Amino acid sequence: MPKIQYSIKKRTITEAYITNILDKEEGKPGHSELFQSSFDIFISDNVDDKERTTIILTF
């Protein structure tokens, strides 16, 4: 999975794992008719401290 640097709550998380929801649900490249992809970002700097957010990317 791709890794990015993501800053949240004034701290830098060095690993954020991105999975494409549409790829999982539809088995397709992940783009809707409006070329929007929805991604889950799992942000974790240790096992017990994990936050999750969903972003929409428009192409």
Architecture overview:
The chain has 59 residues and is mostly beta strands. It has one domain. It contains one helix and five strands; from the N terminus they run E-E-E-H-E-E. The strands form two sheets. It has a three-stranded antiparallel beta sheet. Strand 1 and strand 2 form a beta hairpin. The relative contact order is 0.24.
Shape descriptor: elongated
- Give the count of structural domains: 1
Strand segment count: 5
Biggest β-sheet: count, sense, barrel?
Answer: 3 strands, antiparallel
Helical content (DSSP H or I, runs of 4+)? 10-25%
- Determine the N-to-C terminus distance: 20 Å
Succession of helices and strands: EEEHEE
Widest β-sheet, arrangement of strands? 3-4-5
Evaluate the radius of gyration.
13 Å
Mean pLDDT: 48
Structural class call reads mainly beta
Low-confidence stretches: 7-22, 30-39
Report the sheet-strand fraction: over 45%
SS summary, helix count: 1
List the helices and strands and how they pair.
Elements: E1 6-8, E2 11-13, E3 16-20, H1 21-26, E4 36-46, E5 49-58
Antiparallel strand pairs: 1-2, 3-4, 4-5
